[in-house]
Design goal:
The protein has 475 residues and is an all-alpha fold. It folds into two domains: 8-70 and 329-466, no CATH class; 76-328, no CATH class. 75% of the residues lie in helices and 1% in strands. It has helices at 8-29, 37-55, 60-73, 75-93, 96-107, 110-128, 131-148, 153-170, 175-184, 188-216, 225-235, 244-254, 259-277, 279-286, 293-305, 315-320, 330-348, 351-362, 366-383, 387-404, 409-421, 431-440, 444-447, 452-466, and strands at 308-309, 322-323. A two-stranded antiparallel ribbon has the order 1-2. Helix 1 packs antiparallel against helix 2. The radius of gyration is 23 Å and the shape is globular.
């Protein structure tokens, strides 16, 4: 390839075109935009980028190779999504999710539910190093509990995501926490300590806001709690042993077991517990009178692979006790694939590097350098649709600039996390936004404003840069 001379105007055309069409599409379809129309628009955006690539003599094979590389990078994420769907199905028919909701209704009062959700998810994510796993396990249960308490699902999802990403940012087990200092040339634990300066104030503000919200919202869920508990008891066998399954999964991840293996074990344990405790549910799913081995096999496989609905005497629970299985995750996987196509072509034609370099040239002082880094991370999250690329590409682009300003690498790694990692979940077509929306069954538009920790983090970094607070110089 010849040296890329793509202008900034040409580099931003596909992005502007994409955002414009997505805005129209969301206006027309609303929350249903993720069911297929957004995916096609991502392909249209990729086609516009490809046309510019052909105009600049970028070979077709080069674009295809970049797309293939992007798709390869999300193979693990796609497999995790499939296993999360299977796990949700097996945990539903085994009574694990109903048990979480049952005991949660007894313990979590609406007054403290939202800040408690933030703290619970933060602790689990710190222990596991994964916001995705936290949402797929504890997050699903909290959304279920909050829904029956008649707390808006967007608020609950925002609290879950805020806590999950707080732990993900600070956990040494997190992949992004390890990736950011690697790109910046820093050390892991120095990076974590330096992140606490912006991360702790952000989470404290988040908790304070959720506490205020909790005291101002009105719910009628308390009056229906006994009815809900009775409905769950009538349908499921509820006991404390059911919690051994999610605890086992959390322990496996703490022990650095690969997420795919941990989720598979959790799914199989859920299936086993369904046989042990919920035989009546298996009969109901298949419509059989006797639980033959073939009947049990069919019920468990259906729950893990396709949609499953369990009817109770309470309408709220009927809406809650539904799982799409692996099939329910296909829409999210479809979105990720189309996003990777768009990001791959944008990378192949040099649009991503051109946008980042323009932001770098604008920076004339420390504050502008931090602001350029944040803008670059946001741009990559919007275009490449992947949080890892939002760390890798700006990290590579800005590393020398920070060195020239005699700034310690922790400044760059912290900014990458404060802007790249946490904002990915705020973009519907980003892999993280698509994942969280699909797993929690709450649209990005619904939880966006309530994911307080995620959107306040970049502003906290900018505030520190503007006031020259904890800007570490290179020794």
């Amino acid at each position: 390839m010849k040296k890329n001379d793509l202008s900034l105007g040409l580099a931003t055309i596909p992005l502007i075109f994409l955002v414009f069409l997505l805005s129209i599409n969301v206006f027309i379809y609303g929350d249903n935009a993720l069911n297929g129309s957004n995916q096609f628009i991502l392909l249209i955006g990729g086609a516009v980028a490809a046309i510019i690539g052909f105009y600049k003599n970028i070979p077709y094979k080069t674009m295809i190779k970049k797309i293939a590389k992007n798709l390869q990078s999300v193979t693990g994420a796609i497999l995790i999504l499939l296993f999360v769907g299977a796990l949700a199905g097996s945990w539903l028919i085994s009574g694990i999710i109903p048990a979480m909701i049952y005991f949660g209704l007894k313990i979590l009062h609406p007054t403290i539910f939202l800040p408690a959700s933030v703290i619970i998810c933060a602790l689990i994510s710190l222990a596991t190093g994964s916001s995705w796993t936290t949402s797929a396990t504890v997050g699903i249960a909290l959304v279920g509990i909050g829904t029956v308490l008649e707390i808006p699902s967007g608020m609950i999802a925002g609290a879950v995501i805020s806590g999950a990403y707080f732990g993900d940012k600070l956990s040494p087990l997190s992949d992004t926490t390890n990736l950011a200092p690697a790109m910046a040339g820093g050390e892991l634990f120095k990076h974590i300590r330096y992140m606490t300066y912006t991360t702790i104030p952000s989470i404290l503000i988040t908790l304070f806001v959720f506490l205020i919200i909790s005291f101002t919202i009105t719910t009628t869920g308390n009056t229906e709690t006994n009815e809900l508990l009775l409905a769950i008891e009538e349908k499921f066998t509820i006991n404390i042993w059911l919690f051994s399954v999610p605890i086992s999964v959390i322990v496996l991840i703490i022990k650095k077991t690969p997420p795919l293996i941990a989720l598979l074990i959790g799914t199989l344990m859920g299936a086993l517990f369904a046989l042990l405790f919920q035989s009546q549910i298996l009969l109901e799913i298949t419509g059989s009178d006797i639980l033959y081995p073939s009947v049990a096999y069919q019920a468990i496989m259906n729950a893990m692979t396709v949609s499953t609905e369990i009817a109770t005497s309470n309408i709220l629970l009927n809406d809650l006790f539904v799982s799409g299985g692996m099939k329910g995750m296909l829409g999210t996987i479809w979105l990720i694939i189309c996003a990777m196509v768009f990001g791959g072509i944008m990378d192949a034609i040099g649009a991503l590097s051109r946008i980042s370099s323009s932001l770098l040239n604008w920076a004339e002082n420390t504050f502008q350098l931090f602001a350029s880094t944040i803008a670059s991370c946001l741009a990559v999250n919007l275009t490449a649709s992947d949080q890892y690329l939002s760390i890798v590409i700006p990290g590579k682009m800005f590393k020398k600039a920070y060195e020239q300003r005699k700034l310690a690498p922790e400044n760059l790694s912290r900014t990458l996390e404060d802007s790249g990692t946490v904002t990915s979940v705020l973009i519907p077509w980003n892999t993280c936004g698509a994942y969280q929306s699909g797993v929690l069954n709450v649209g990005v538009g619904e939880y966006f404003i309530f994911a307080i920790f995620n959107w306040i983090s970049p502003f906290m970094t900018l505030l520190y840069a503007a006031l020259n607070i904890k800007i570490l110089k290179k020794s």
